[in-house]
Amino acid sequence: MFGLLPSTRAQIQALEVITANIMIADESLNIRYMNSAVKELLKEAADDLKRELSRFDFNKLIGSNIDIFHKNPKHQRNMLAGLKTQHKATISVGHRVFDLIVTPLKSGSKNSGFVVEWTDAKERLQNLDYEGQLKAVSRAQVVIEFTPTGEVVAANENFLAATRYSLSEIKGKSHRLFLEPGSAGDKEFSLLWAELQSNRPWIGDIIRYGKDGRVLSLNASYNPITDEKGKVIKVVKFATDVSDRVHAVDTIGSALSSMAQGDLAFTLEKPFATDFEALRTNLNATVRQLASTLGAVAAATDRIDTGTREISTSADDLSKRTEQQAASLEETAAALDEITVNVNNALKRTEDARNAAQIADSSATLSGQIVAEAVGAMARIEQSSSQIYNIIGVIDEIAFQTNLLALNAGVEAARAGEAGKGFAVVAQEVRELAHRSGQAAKEIKDLIRKSSEEVKSGVKLVNETGDALKTIHDNIVDVNDHMQAIANFAREQAVGLSEVNSAVNQMDQVTQQNAAMVEETNAASATLAKETQRLRELISRFMLAQQGRTAPVAEPARFAVTNTTASRRPPIVRRAATHGNTALKQDDWQEF
């Protein structure tokens, strides 16, 4: 091959059985040979290479130029043309990365070909990434490495700084050195290493002891490292120093305990680590605010208590006055009831009187009419009497004339002598009759005159009676009007008294309700006074700064253990999801 010696051909045939990925190109950079290993490598990556390199064809690689692997072949040709010694390069094709070792084949001073060793760089890059991650972990965390039985092999600077040991002081020493003294530490050591030797990792918060009893609070993971057969060959512990966090938690826990006991007269004076300083500041502000609030509540409670007592006293007085008012209103209501009854009775009597006045008015009117008729009758009688008087006068004159005629007849009869004697007797009789008629007419005339005078007097009296009856009628009308007004007033008064009575009854009911509400208010005031006293007692359980103490809460030691049972109880075992190596050998971290 390429005019090589038979011994060289034998060497090339040997390349078929080795695991290295070998490719050979001639001086023109045409591929002349690929062993089985490189074929498998390129065949497995063929699809990815084809997507990135359009001229790549796995089936036609033999005889193809290596330019198909480069996007800028000119650069590689120039480099290979002047290549005199072995050259290492890394090429990236898509997400594939390959490490190449190019060795020139010399024929005299000229290059007769090139041997290219291909390596998938994925594993190398992963190892570099792992190495970088481990270095980052080592910079940030406490790292210590043990033998499978717990002897210290190596420790990083963070571990040494945290424990204040030097590596020479702890190398080869048992892990028991860092545990709690006594039987509790012995038990923890036995349980922990039994788990680790069984390839079961352990993760959790732990307490460890450094030089001179220095206490460390760590969040740690113990990771068994196995060989290819699964045998534990070492244990690596990664841990974070959480002492600052524990110190902050313990201090705040102590402060909260003091607050739970009612002590608010404290402040946390000692600063925390930067990450936790806000907790201290906020807790101090909370305590101050709570103390201020409780102080204000206490002052308000005193004021409420004073006000409540005043309210209670006032409520008692108001209750008594309300009861008196209720009694007075009840009596007033009863009196108004009686007055209303009396007014209603007076209204009834007034109505009766008004009716009687109306009847009297009717009777007076009727009497007036009768008197008027009597006056008319009397007038007619007077007129008739006047007529009779005139007639009697006529009769008296007739009697006088008759008497005169009789006298003349007697004279004539006397003259007549015996012949006129009878006539004289008749004339005498007529004269006597005329005399008696005249006398009777005179008497009748006197009687008629007297009767006329009595009639006049009667007419006058009847007129006066009529006038009196008219006056009575007018007075009765006035009385009736007054009685009507009195009746209306009495009716309105009755209605008003009824409304007043209703209002007083409502006032009585409202007053009774007010009295009941005053009693309830009094009871509520008493209850409020009791609750205020209870609130004062509750507030008195708190010790506030103004009560005379401002001492800070006793802060725990920088690395104090808040729960001593944590280091005595068996460690909590958390099994890893996978077995196998979870860390690399310390010596391997720094080299490829």
UniProtKB/TrEMBL annotation:
Residues 300-529 form the Methyl-accepting transducer domain. InterPro entries: Chemotax_Me-accpt_rcpt (IPR004090), HAMP_dom (IPR003660), MCP_chemotaxis (IPR051310), MCPsignal_dom (IPR004089), PAC (IPR001610), PAS (IPR000014), PAS-assoc_C (IPR000700), PAS-like_dom_sf (IPR035965). The keyword Thylakoid does not apply. Keywords: Chemotaxis, Transducer. Pfam families: MCPsignal, PAS_8, PAS_9. It comes from the Bacteria. Residues 200-254 form the PAC domain. Residues 243-295 form the HAMP domain. NCBIfam families: sensory_box. Belongs to the methyl-accepting chemotaxis (MCP) protein family. This is Methyl-accepting chemotaxis protein.
